[in-house]
Every structure is written in C-alpha cells, then in structure tokens.
User: What shape does this take?
Amino acid sequence: MNYSVKLSSITPSATSTLNTLTKELIKEGKSIINLSIGEPDFETPDYIKEAAKKAIDEGITRYTENQGFFQLRKSISDKLKRDNHMAYSPYEIVVSNGAKHSLYNIFQALLNPGDEVIIQSPYWVSYPEMIKLAAGNPVIIKTNTINQFKMKPEQIREVITPKTKIILLNSPSNPTGSVYSKEELMEIGNIAIKHDLYIVSDEIYEKLIFDDKHTSIASLSNELFNRTITVNGVSKAYAMTGWRIGYIATTRDLANTITSFQSHSTSNPSSISQMAAIAALEGPESSVIQMKERYKKRRDLMCELINDIMDTRLCVPKGAFYIFPDISGWLKPLGKQSCVEVAQWLLEECGVAAIPGAAFGSPGYIRFSFATSEENIQRAFASIKEKIEKNN
Ligand code: PLP
Assistant: This one.
C-alpha cells in the first residue's frame, strides 16, 4: 500500500474500534451492557423530527449557503446572546457537519506546520489527530483526579513556546465531566492574551451541567471575545448525533476563510438537518431539562456503585455523561498490567463495554458512559462486583 504520509501518523479512534467490537459480540449473541457510548440514548424530541419532515415536504432539499442557512445562523446568534451573553452576527457563524467537523475546519484554517496547540489529557480522542492532520503538534498537559482534571495556569505557562498558537478548552469535558469555573477561565484567558494566543472553546456539552454553571470564555471580556473561537452544536443537548450539525462563532474574517475551505470539501450540511436544528434552538427547552435530570440521576447512581468497588479514586463529574475513575488500584487484584487489559476483562468477563483511559491519553483510568438506563447501570456494576469478588 502506498498511502499518504499525512494519514500514516493518525491512530484510529479507539472509541469507535471498541464500539465495533462490542457490536460484533452483541451480534454473536453475547449479552453486553454498553457503557462505552458517546451519545445520548434518548430519542430526538418529536418537535424537532416534525420540523425535518416538514422541510422534506416543503422541498427544502437543495444546496444551501455553504456557511449554513441564514435563518439557522440567526437562531444560533440569538442562542449565543440568550444563553452565553455573546453578540455574534449571523455572518460570524459557520455551520458544519457536526462539532467534530467544525473543529477540523478550525485547525485547518489556523495551523501552519509545527504550530503547537495546548490540550489537556485526558482529552477527547479526536483532538490530537485533528491537530496532526493540520500539520500541528499537540502539546499535552497532564491532569488527574487530584487537580479535578483541570489545567493549572502554571502548567500552561511552562509549555508555551514561540510556536504555541492555540489553547484548546473543553468544558464540560469528555471524558471527565470536569467544568472550569469563571475564575479559572479568566486566568487561562489572561495567559492567552499575554502570549497572543487563540483559544478554541469546545462547548458541546454546555447544556449538560449538573451542579455548576456554564461559562463561555469568550463572554468574559472583549479581548477574549476577539481571540476565541467558540464551538458548539446540537448533537448532545438535543439527542441529535446522527443529524450532524455543529457550528463555530468567531470573527467575520475567520468565518469567511472557513466557509471558503468548507465550500471545497463538504459544502453545506444537510438542508433537512439545518431546518431541524432551527427547531431545536428555537423550541422549548423542557426536553433538554428532562434529559439532564435523567443523566444526573444516572450519574449519582453510577458514582455510588463505583465507590462500592475496590480501590477506585473518583472525581464526581459536574457535566457531560461520562465518569472517569482512576482504576490503577484494580490492576493488582485483577492481575492486569494496564487499563486496556482491564477494559478487555470488563468486556469478556463481565459483559460490560467501557473505554480504557489510554485512548484519552490517560492510562490507569476507564471511561464509563451513563448515557444508558439505570437498569443497565445496575446490572453492569452488579456483574463487575460479582466478578471482582470471585477474583479475590
Ligand atoms: N467535542 C467533544 C468533546 C465530543 O465529545 C464530541 C462528540 O463525541 C464532539 C466534539 C463532536 O460532536 P458532533 O457530534 O457535533 O460532531
């Protein structure tokens, strides 16, 4: 095979690999409880589905503006004003095929070969790969349960070089559910201002915060507004992962550059999904609130059950739908060498699919998703507990 050098440095998404393996085992008839999922288990609310059906019936089935329908960008602009206190015009917004696509576009637009992007580990699996695809270098700051999975300002200062271009933030975080406070964001923002860096703020889990309040870093000052690219979308909040709608808010100049790039790769996202996204953003928030309440219950349940198993250090997630416990205390009793071996053991012995922390740059941890029913969570941890007790 003679593939491009660029792609040879990319590692396949560990989360999708495990998902595929899990689906295969299920197809073979094995009973697997899937706690590896990265998407809501709820249905897209009916009023959103209806808007999509209406779009089809009304023939809204053609190419749209590459940047996304003006009407959708207006809805996003209104949302950013209402929820995040940020004044972006529809011309400063670009709609793409999911927030993942939005992030990909940003790195392609901003990075030159060798430019550095500061990210924290544990990180969402696609960040380092997307940065490398844009010829950039991910510079990773390690965080852990002790510092609540949050970067300290001094850690950031230590890794800044003349090549640093972007600080990437993800609050609430996948995989840890950690949430940065306004004060913490301000401190990071001041570093970005001092060193003239861009901030990319991935706020895709914004609506799923249980205890804290979400703060958009771009809302904190004019200086931060001007250097921040805010990323969001409808996938997680409205249970719309398959519809593929994400967006960025930035300067008009960068929005135009990214639109031009997008026009030569994917053009506009689906016209039907765009109409559904308008309904999501303009509709009642009650379904989002109901889903959030359910996630909160499941989070509390999962924390309680994990605490009941062996030596597990846990940081209660404040948002998103993942728990990322430190399971290094499990290795010796289970006779395992790594979190990857523990994940395999969980799948094969306990019938529970979860993702090893190594996939997120943090060996010694496991990511359990609580985007599944309370019953599944109860069954999964009963099975793990039983197998652990048998081992001891
Ligand atoms: N950012 C983070 C942190 C995510 O976890 C995900 C999805 O898992 C995305 C972005 C991408 O979301 P979308 O479905 O909108 O592409």
Remarks:
- The pocket of pyridoxal-5'-phosphate is lined by residues 38, 98-100, 124, 170, 174, 202, 204, 233, 235, 241, 246 (CB under 6 Å).
- Residues 345 and 351 are 9 Å apart (CA to CA).
- The mean pLDDT is 95.
